Amino acid sequence: MYRVIHQLKERNFDREVTRSEKSVLDYLEEHFQMIPNETVVKIAQQSYTSQATINRASKLLGVDGFSDLKYAIKEDIENMKSTSTKHILNTDYILSKINFQSSDDLVKYIYSKRHHLLLFGLGASHISAQYMARQLLYLGIPAIVISESQMLKKFKDYSLVLLSSSGETQRCLQVAHDAKKTNIPVLSITKKDSSIMKESLITFHHDVAVDKMEGISREQQIHMILMVNEVINQLKKIM
């Protein structure tokens, strides 16, 4: 497991980060590969902060101080150099962020409504919805992938499963609102504590952070596919 890089990207700390600490964290993330060869004095100068602030930021990342931080980052960099190790560690991280126990109620509900299911997702999550529909069909469970809210009017006895990695997509939220207006139960596979989770009767949830590349959010679907597979595998056992 990576010791620093994921915490640095997510920044889900147990207290609010100060402005100066944020400057240090931003510098560490931007110059991650160079940190093992830099001094605390240089980082303090470059981030316009103090050595004390750097040590506080280091503790936020789960180490005792800057010396330990340099060592932990060096370990992360070594692991990132190996392609196979990189993918293994990334998959382990993603698995640790999925609450597999939260799938139980969703599986039971889907099984009870197995002939009256609608699926909806956008972008990459639309592909996950199509994949889920195909896997359900292999089990003899027909599921209809819808593309717009108007289709809901024709399926009043159905339940809707929303797939959304972020849980904040506005169009998905609108579909959830429209479904509830027509008394269609809303279920979801989505991010923990997201807006879509709050709109859902039952949710199988994860806590994977949004992947950012050069300021652009890149929607990963590895965790969504793993979650769909978990639902399918549990349904296989029931059936």
Automatic annotation (TrEMBL):
SUPFAM superfamilies (alphabetical): Homeodomain-like, SIS domain
Domain HTH rpiR-type: from-to ranges: 4-80
Keywords attached to this entry: DNA-binding, Transcription, Transcription regulation
Keyword field contains Repressor: no
Residue stretches in coiled coil: none
Domain of life: Bacteria
Protein name: Transcriptional regulator, RpiR family
SIS domain mapped to chain residues: 106-239
A single BP term in Gene Ontology: carbohydrate derivative metabolic process
InterPro entries: Homeodomain-like_sf, HTH_RpiR, RpiR-like, RpiR-like_SIS, SIS_dom, SIS_dom_sf, WH-like_DNA-bd_sf
MF GO annotations: carbohydrate derivative binding; DNA binding; DNA-binding transcription factor activity
Organism: Alkalibacterium gilvum
PANTHER family: GLUCOKINASE (PTHR30514), RPIR-FAMILY TRANSCRIPTIONAL REGULATOR (PTHR30514:SF21)
